[in-house]
Specification:
D-Maltodextrin-Binding Protein, domain 2; Dipeptide-binding Protein, domain 3; six-stranded mixed β-sheet; 17 helices
């Protein structure tokens, strides 16, 4: 659970920045990028960190690629069709796709005495998707493929992988059959979890696939060219690429760098090319010459520690929620649980209204149910949210009118993560977000078996209404899920935080889609 919590909370320090390199022509332009977390591996099927997915989307061509507006653009596919019932997808593949074998990978293959067919065929997509569904792979984004026929049974270990609804009709025709109609399925095919994997090379690596540059071959506009001791990694232009998205830059290098304020200064000065920033101090360093795109993608919310028996009491939580006047806590209180940047965030969800009488009545009832006559609530937050936490605690102590002692524990980001993992809190102000930009993915973190559900919420009824949203995503179902969470005081939305994507003066072409924060570099240019 530590890595999940770390990945979420460190959104405030997320960096994807580029150092300006020498070279005037587009063919010789290099980008050096600082990331807050270095990739732990380069296996697309198990990519989880933003940096891991950024490498994957640049060195692999999937069936589809996410365009600048979040649309699914044909990539390895030349044509496709969907059956009238929406269940069977048939894809015709390019016949000129090949894996690029770097010198490091070639040396490894020679040392192992093996051979690899560099042609990318339908079988490579079958193998890659099947790997992602197998339980032993532990693919972070398996859920994107769970709609495929028998995927849940294969993932659960009850049926063989050869029953999965993915097959190669011939070398360049791929067929995928779904369990149920899902209109957003093409999005799943743009993501690393569905990328091709060469079975012969995978077997040759003997469990080391994707760990270093010699253990990965790819078919994208770039290839992984070097990895250095967890401090840097580079991908370079694929000289043999024949697809529709050739690389303009000659190379991109990732460096470990967690100082967001310093990075923002360097984007402003032109030393760095671009960056994501959500820390207010970092954003203040960006000047007028920087091109900024604002994303309201973080919902700072009050969550209760439902791993605690006391906080599992619904009446208690409702009383605490009703005692807080949100307009007195923040100037712009959220009306939904999902940030406005996300798809299907909705207009306004129903929650618990500020009502002192109701709050007091609920707290008296809760004390009776729990058999207690006093309560201490420890509200955990980062130092940046201390003033907000103090306002919440002051409302509790002023309005509830029963024996309640509220305390604020404002700590550094590092200690915050440690305390979350230890469970040493009763309530927390937490920056909720997910990389995908999807309200469905955001709301999934509240399901009973979600790995992101560190706060311990479990509800069969919520799981049921979420499944309805997942099967047929629309704004009404999204609002139903959000209202359920808010009415049951699982989450009390407070305010939005904005992430800024900044491009230095003269830099263009580097983009991320509206659905993810993974950077695409193939169009990168500098004046």
């Amino acid at each position: 659970m530590l890595k999940k919590i770390t990945a979420l909370i460190l959104i405030s320090a997320l960096l994807v920045t580029g150092l300006t390199a020498c070279g005037g022509s587009s063919g010789s332009t290099s980008f050096a990028c600082a990331v807050s977390e270095m990739p732990r591996h380069f296996d697309p099927q198990i990519a989880q960190l933003t940096s891991e997915k950024t490498v994957a989307v640049n060195i692999f061509d999937g069936l589809f690629k996410l365009g600048e507006n979040g649309e699914a653009v044909k990539c390895a596919v030349t044509d496709y069709s969907v059956s009238s019932d929406g269940l069977v997808y048939t894809f015709k593949l390019r016949e000129d796709m090949n894996y690029y074998i770097s010198s490091a990978a070639a040396d490894f293959i020679e040392e192992r005495g093996g051979s690899v067919d560099t042609s990318v065929t339908a079988e490579d997509f079958v193998f890659g998707i099947t790997r992602a569904v197998l339980p032993e792979t532990q693919a972070a984004d398996y859920e994107l493929l769970s709609v495929i026929k028998n995927a849940e049974k294969v993932h659960g270990g009850s049926v063989s992988s050869d029953t999965l609804g993915v097959r190669a009709v011939d070398s360049f025709t791929l067929e995928i059959t779904l369990e149920r109609k899902y209109d957003n399925f093409l999005y799943a095919l743009t993501q690393p979890v569905s990328y091709p994997c060469c079975e012969s090379f995978f077997e040759l690596t003997a469990g080391r696939y994707g760990l270093e540059e010699q253990y990965i071959i790819s078919n994208g506009a770039f290839y992984l060219s070097s990895v250095s001791d967890g401090q840097s990694a580079a991908f370079s232009k694929n000289p043999e690429y024949k697809g529709d998205f050739p690389a303009s830059p000659s190379s991109v290098r990732l460096y470990l760098n967690t100082d967001s304020v310093d990075a923002a200064k360097k984007v402003d000065s032109g030393t760095y090319d671009c960056g994501f920033f959500s820390d207010s101090e970092a954003c203040s360093q960006l000047g007028r010459k920087v091109t900024e795109t604002e994303l309201k993608n973080i919902a700072c919310s009050l969550l209760f520690n439902l791993n605690s028996k006391t906080m599992q009491n619904n009446t208690l939580r409702r009383g605490l929620a009703a005692a807080v006047q949100l307009s007195g806590v923040t100037e712009t209180p959220l009306k939904t649980a999902v940030p406005s940047y996300f798809s299907l965030s909705g207009g306004s969800a129903e929650g618990i209204s500020y009502n002192i009488e109701s709050a007091r009545a609920d707290m008296i009832s809760a004390y009776e149910e729990l058999g207690i006559d006093n309560l201490t609530v420890n509200l955990l937050c980062t130092e940046s949210d201390e003033s907000t936490a103090k306002r919440i605690v002051s409302y509790w102590q002023k309005n509830i009118g029963v024996e309640l002692n509220g305390t604020v524990n404002a700590v550094s980001d590092e200690d915050f993560v440690s305390l979350l993992n230890s469970g040493e809190y009763d309530a927390v102000i937490y920056p909720l977000t997910v990389d995908s930009g999807s309200a469905v993915d955001f709301l999934e973190m509240f399901t009973s078996d979600s790995e992101e559900n560190f706060f311990g919420y479990s509800s069969d009824e919520y799981d049921r209404i979420f499944e309805e949203l997942k099967l047929s995503p629309d704004e009404e179902k999204s609002l139903d899920c959000q209202s359920y969470l808010m009415k049951n005081a699982v989450v009390l939305p407070l305010f939005e935080k904005t992430t800024v994507f900044a491009l230095a003066e003269g830099v263009s072409g580097i983009y991320f889609s509206s659905a993810t924060s993974n950077l695409y570099f193939y169009k990168g240019q500098k004046q």
